[in-house]
Amino acid sequence: MISQWRLRAAFAARLSDMYGREVPAYTTLVDVSREVNADVLRERGADAERLGSLGRVTAERHGAIRVGTPAELGQVARIFGALGMRPVGFYDLREAAASAVPVVSTAFRPVDEEELARNPFRVFTSLLTPADPRFFDDGLRTRLEAFLAGRELFPPELLALADRAETERELPDEEGERFLRLAVAAFELSREPVDRAWYRTLEKVSAVAADIGGVRSTHLNHLTPRVLDIDGLYARMTGRGIEMIDTIQGPPRWEGPDVLLRQTSFRALDESRPMREPDGTVAEGALRVRFGEVEARGIALTPEGRELYDGMLGLVDARLAAEPGAARAEVARSVWAAHLPATERELDARGLAYFTYRVSPARARDGSRPPAGLDALLDEGWVRAEPVVYEDFLPRSAAGIFQSNLSGEGSRDDAREGAAYDTDWLAGALGREVLDPYALYAAQRRRSLARVAEELDLPEI
Ligand code: OOG
Ligand code: NI
């Protein structure tokens, strides 16, 4: 039998092998990430593993896929459900970028601490929004929906095996092998000829629309290893001659604790694809649809912390608008130094970030009674706080990643009213609950406090 988490780990590893074979720069990215992680561990010792063991971080990947219809999304949910991954969070990218990105998204990931520690594989999954009239007029929407209704992304055998794995939380070896093979194949780039005229029609609206609705299959569009020093990685990749996008998205490098998520990527490269011309002939063409990304993860912020983060982004934008020559990273660093606490302890005390708590063994054995209240327990050394790593995504960075890889601007008609897509709508499309990331982090914190209270024989903390 292959257990659910082993299926997930095997799927992540095989997807990584497939992507490395097909997108060689990704292999360089993984190699450089390993080097950087080993160096950070050597320099910082155990402290380097404060937000995840080297074992977890080395195996850690997120992928991204894009699908066209609620029915396809429902099937994706079954495949990832088989791997113990559940939809977490709702991201609306339609307005988050200057270019046209007509999608709404969620991320499939494990949610339990033990499952995350075993293998945290996650997939950012976007769904096209053909009903949004800012992007698609009625005629194009009808054609697009008809095209999407006529394709099959996932073979029925894969879906049947997925349902079995989700229910039984394991598969016999042979079925497990078959499931993995079919699942990886479903996310490979297809060699089926692309209808050039149809692809171009959609590309005028948005390169993302063409990538999703212009072909009869889906594909992994990037895979992202995790690195412990993203500035170091960026410099080394550039040193190896790989052209990276201009910036590292998300928080700046600064003196205080790493929070949320920092990401950067290399651009999509031309890949040769057969194209069918209007006269029926097929000729080799090229499309740029696959790239590589890397990320560094920090501490999860509470809603208050996130509000502060979003406010700081606004301040950075305002300063840059006032001083167009200024370097974003410099401006961001000074805004951060002025507004964000520079220690974990203060982030915690101000309720800006999530921590879990553990009784420190030495103190519990010295015979005295613990004080009441978390602050006193921490101050007097009874309890230690450990940061909770951010397991999710950032809409503005996601939009930036989409945007950095779009070939054209596309078009969004802002004079029209957008269609309403929200968390409830997405849950309906998925046929499952969309979990709230904050609720997951808060529950993790509460569980740890309950354990501390029990161990120290205290009433509720
Ligand atoms: C997804 C982009 C979002 C991230 O890391 O923020 C993403 C896509 O390009 O389909 O993966
Ligand atoms: Ni990504």
From TrEMBL:
SMART domains: DUF1338 (SM01150). Its cofactor is Fe(2+). Pfam families: HGLS. Keywords: Dioxygenase, Iron, Oxidoreductase. Its EC number is 1.13.11.93. Gene3D superfamilies: Uncharacterised protein PF07063, DUF1338. It comes from the Bacteria. Belongs to the 2-oxoadipate dioxygenase/decarboxylase family. PANTHER family: 2-OXOADIPATE DIOXYGENASE_DECARBOXYLASE (PTHR39479:SF2), PTHR39479. This is 2-oxoadipate dioxygenase/decarboxylase. It comes from Streptomyces albiaxialis.
